[in-house]
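INTERNAL AUDIT FORM
Audit reference: QA-55
Scope: verify that the stored structure record matches its stored sequence.
Auditor: D.O.
Record contents follow.
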Amino acid sequence: MPDKPHRNFYGRRHGKTLNSAQKGYLTDDLAALAPGPVGWDENPERNPLDLAARFGERSVWLEIGFGGGEHMVHQAAANRDIALIGAEPFINGVAMLLGKIRKAEVTNVAVHPGDVRDLFDVLPDKSVAKAFLLYPDPWPKSRHHRRRFVTPEYLAPLARIMAPDAELRVATDIPDYVRQALEQIPKAGFRWVAETAEDWRRPWPDWISTRYEQKALREGRRPHYLTFQRR
């Protein structure tokens, strides 16, 4: 078995103690929402997922770090003809998402409660039509910038799984993260599609503001909405 990368682009995996309902979601719902055999223990050969068997002919979207899940459920409910896979290592966020999935009664979702790099290993080439990276951990200290998602270590496998002309959306309130994204993402095979300042100042038409964005706005930080297209 090859060694997995040792640097994580995310922080802690656990937060406050889960309540009984959240524990129930994890016990009762999570296994059925798996996108397929993703884990190293269940797929040590890293065989590609059979997306057609799991989702039929649906177009596949990917959310990298879905936080509390509000954006993921919003998109799934608004686009029931697509399949949306979410990856999130923070178990409290996973439990929150599962509760929202129950409430919204969306069935076109799959959940990987772990590192998105595990998904990168097993998603077929050019299989993802749209990807979201929304308010990722900014790792503000200079010595930690290499842990940001917008580095070659993460962008190269993301580019591999994205189809030609696929869309990548990045939202962040950290100016230096914007700088690094605009520097590194085009190098990985993407084109920034903005033509005017309004293209990155205004959210996407189907956007729903997340709790992370609301916190940024309360603290006086301006969100940036970056759209890239896979070349």
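Auditor finding: record pair retrieved intact. The chain has a mean pLDDT of 93.
Action required: none
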